[in-house]
Design goal:
- The protein is an alpha+beta fold and 88 residues long.
- The chain has a domain of 57 residues: Orthogonal Bundle (Peroxidase, domain 2).
- 26% of the residues lie in helices and 18% in strands.
- It has a two-stranded antiparallel ribbon.
- Strand 3 and strand 4 form a beta hairpin.
- The longest helix has 8 residues.
- The protein is globular and about 35 Å long.
- InterPro entries: Catalase_peroxidase (IPR000763), Haem_peroxidase_sf (IPR010255).
- Keywords: Heme, Iron, Metal-binding, Oxidoreductase, Peroxidase.
- Its cofactor is heme b.
- It is an enzyme of class 1 (oxidoreductase).
- Its EC number is 1.11.1.21.
Length: 88
Amino acid sequence: MTNGIEGSWTPDPTKWDKSYLENLFKFEWEQTRSPAGALQWTPVDKSATRTPDAHVSGKTHPLTMMTSDIALKIDPVYRNLRAVSRRL
């Protein structure tokens, strides 16, 4: 069983870098539903960075965030992460 969220936070999910924070703050996000029906967030801009499919070469998907990720962006205390991510 999974939570039904389907997607990746970054365009290169196996690479450890700061792209999670860059993507979180760079894009505006809208609430959508995964193919399994779970609530998740994808970029409003349909031309935004995409992530590769895990199984089908050449297929891509929109980046995905969970509500807890979006909370980091809009909460005034955690919004300081934006400044931290720029210094990394």
